[in-house]
Write a structure and sequence with these properties.
Blueprint lengths: L1 H29 L5 H15 L3 E6 L6 H9 L20 E4 L7 E6 L9 H4 L7 E4 L5 H8 L5 E5 H6 L17 E5 L1 E7 L3 H4 L2 E5 L3 H6 L1 H7 L5 E7 L6 H11 L9 E6 L11 H19 L6 E3 L2 H10 L2 H7 L1 H55 L5 H43 L1 H17 L3 H44 L12 H17 L3 H6 L2 H34 L1 H26 L4 H34 L9 H8 L7
Parallel strand pairs: 1-8, 1-9, 2-7, 9-10, 10-11
Antiparallel strand pairs: 2-8, 3-4, 3-7, 5-6
Helix pairs in contact: 1-2, 1-14, 1-22, 2-14, 3-12, 12-13, 14-21, 14-22, 15-16, 15-17, 15-21, 16-17, 16-20, 17-18, 17-20, 18-20
């Protein structure tokens, strides 16, 4: 399978890159070029590589064949369906498939009743006791399938209970009550399947979603899970094309008409329903092409962004080794599109992030070596000038270096004064950006909403929350600009007056986090802060929904901003501190060298020989750091991937003897 090969190649690229970074880090440590901040930066790089995930979400209304498509693309090698796939609804709750090597194979299920709390799914991930965990018997296909059918489970509750849990009371997607007034709802709110599939082990995460009804019920799906996906496959049925409910899902949760959204692919599934035995292959192809064109026009996409397939026939073809049927299912065309578009884009994102961080680490190490070489050559020049000079000249040189040392230490006093200003500005920044500030805002907003007597006051309280959040982010951005100006000014002074070799401090912006708050406000205005919602529901319910669905995401945005700001501040002043320490060491060594010559003039040639040897070592180290850096850059730039073998032949060779294989 093209996607499997590409993803395996991507994982191997990631491993080679990690090895090259380990080698570079080891070289820095062996040559006393590492420090606490450099180690911290390396840990961030390794965390980024270790935690790298490729997330693919499958979204559609029910009975479009999402689960079957996942089975056909990823799990056909098991000779059977892994996810339940039958007529009607199968996936009743959002389901994530992943692999955590530290856990036994299992499915963790979050009860639907947890929707009555203000705790988000993301927070529940850190509360394992709240989940129902069922072990997976990966050696028994039948037992595995039976356990995984848990995602299809439902329960019947009163209309009042369903409403309290957030299910729509009326409209097209409201659950229909039976004769006893009971409605059917999912038993589970979320499912996490931990399964040791080779692709999942390498970092693939698959998100299988329920239909529009549950998508609307669980806003975290559309506010967090879907936006974090690297690709979203939107599945339609070939026999119906784009229905009104399909269009609602597309417009509200995935794309916008007339706008091509990166990483969004539309799948026109179940084309085998158009395989009419009374029509020629050309007539069938024309019918499929017509459906593709009409769907593309309705969704506002180019026709080449819509892929007609038969997931069911593709799965059967792979299980039975039927190459002709696999070709007719058109599944390979979809897989090639995914592998050719998704994996290179993911690699580019990872490459860009790693490259920027590594370039800073490399520049820091290279700057230290350059500073050492410059100081050493300055020292050699001074000592060379002492050849044949009398003691008075040597005394003069000692005095000159002492003056330099005193002037530098005076400059250090200004630097330490700057550190106190830096601390004050940092405290000011976190006064605006910190989580304590946000907690105070959420508390005041909650009280304002509960105190509201009119819908207008309720609406204004929600708008006020976003306005205040944006104001605090804007003030934080101003604090960041002030910190940057201060650091740049002190850097410039040390570069000009003392010859320090400092690279420009890294820029930092809260733009991404401000955009996230804007996105949340737009979602809130469309789903919570609307005239219909405000008129239909009481303020307690609106308040609960606002804090359960919106402020949780705002808190996550501020948490992310705090982490980014803390990392930036830690790395902002560290290079200057390192260079200052290096300069102090050089001045001390220069003074000691001249004093030694003063005390015993016969040691001058010996000292010059020592310095010449040290210079040769430094030049070797500069060559080595360039070679080590180039090795990392080669690993970053690598795009090699294995030659694709024949599809069916490869599957016959690799087909496992059991599910566990």
């Amino acid at each position: 399978m093209a996607l499997a090969r590409q993803f395996t190649a991507y994982s191997e690229w990631r491993d080679r890159l990690s090895e090259s970074l380990v080698d570079f880090r080891r070289w820095l440590a062996d040559n006393t070029l590492s420090d606490t901040q450099t180690d911290l930066r390396f840990e961030r790089l390794f965390d980024k590589l270790r935690e790298d995930r490729l997330k693919i979400a499958f979204v559609a209304e029910f009975s479009r064949g999402k689960s079957e498509l996942i089975n056909a693309i990823f799990f056909a090698c098991h000779h059977n369906r892994m996810l339940p796939s039958t007529v009607g609804r199968t996936t009743m709750c959002p389901t994530e498939l992943m692999c955590d090597p530290g856990k036994e194979p299992c499915i963790d299920l979050l009860p639907i009743e947890t929707r009555e709390t203000d705790t988000s799914i993301n927070d529940y991930r850190h509360l394992p006791a709240e989940w129902i965990s069922l072990p997976l018997d990966i050696d028994s296909p039948d037992a595995l399938q039976e356990t995984l059918r848990s995602v299809s489970e439902v329960r019947r509750v009163s209309r009042e209970t369903a409403t309290r849990l957030g299910f729509p009371e009326e409209g097209e997607h409201a659950a229909k009550a039976d004769a006893e007034g009971q409605v059917e709802i999912p038993r589970w709110r979320h499912a996490l399947i931990n399964y040791p599939h080779p692709l999942l082990r390498q970092g693939l995460v698959i998100l299988d979603t329920p239909g529009l009804n549950a998508v609307g019920v669980e806003p975290e799906l559309t506010l967090s899970l879907l936006p974090s996906a690297h690709a979203i496959l939107f599945i339609l049925a070939a026999d119906t094309g784009v229905t009104q409910s399909d269009l609602t899902v597309w417009n509200e949760h995935i794309g916008h008409p007339g706008k091509l959204t990166h990483g969004r692919i539309v799948v026109l599934n179940k084309i085998d329903g158009l395989w009419d035995g009374l029509k020629s292959e050309a007539e069938i192809a024309d019918e499929i092409d017509r459906q593709v064109r009409e769907s593309a026009q309705t969704l506002g996409l180019r026709p080449d962004r819509i892929f007609p397939v038969s997931a069911q026939k593709g799965l059967v073809a792979r299980v039975n080794g039927n190459e002709a049927l696999l070709e007719r299912s058109r599944l390979l065309m979809l897989e090639h599109a995914l592998s050719d578009e998704l994996i290179p884009a993911k690699r580019d994102i990872m490459r860009e992030g790693i490259s920027a961080e590594f370039d800073d680490i490399y520049a820091h190490a290279r700057g230290l070596l350059d500073a050492r070489l410059s100081g050493l050559r300055e020292q050699r020049g001074e000592l060379s000038e002492l050849r044949g000079k009398n003691r008075g000249v040597i005394d003069y040189m000692i005095g000159k270096v002492r003056v330099e040392k005193e002037e530098f230490e005076t400059g250090l006093q200004r630097f330490y004064a700057t550190r106190s200003i830096f601390s004050r500005l940092t405290n000011q920044l976190f006064g605006h950006l910190g989580l304590d500030s946000l907690r105070a805002l959420t508390a005041s907003t909650r009280q304002a909403m509960l105190d509201a007597r009119l819908s207008r006051a309720l609406s204004e309280a929600m708008r006020g929350f976003f306005a205040e959040a944006q104001r605090r982010l804007n003030e934080s951005e101003a604090d960041i600009g002030e910190i940057m100006e201060m650091i740049e000014a002190i850097q410039k002074k040390f570069i000009v007056e003392y010859g320090l070799k400092l690279s420009r401090p890294a820029r930092f912006s809260l733009t991404r986090h401000r955009q996230e708050i804007v996105r949340l406000e737009q979602w809130c205005d469309a789903h919570v802060n609307t005239a219909f919602q405000l008129m239909r529901h009481d303020k307690q319910r609106i308040t609960k929904r606002f804090f359960r669905e919106v402020t949780h995401q705002a808190v996550r945005a501020f948490e992310s901003a705090n982490r980014d700001a803390e990392s930036w501040l830690k790395l902002l002043i560290a290079p200057m501190e390192t260079q200052i320490r290096e300069r102090q060491i050089q001045l001390r060594r220069r003074l000691e060298s001249i004093k030694r010559i003063h005390q015993a003039t016969g040691t001058l040639d010996e000292r010059l020989d020592e310095l010449a040897h040290a210079e040769r070592q430094l030049l070797d180290e500069l060559r080595d750091v360039e070679n080590a850096g180039e090795a990392v850059r080669r690993a970053l730039a690598a795009t090699d991937s294995p030659e694709p073998p024949d599809e069916m032949a490869r599957q016959k060779e690799e087909r496992p003897s059991s599910v566990a294989a």
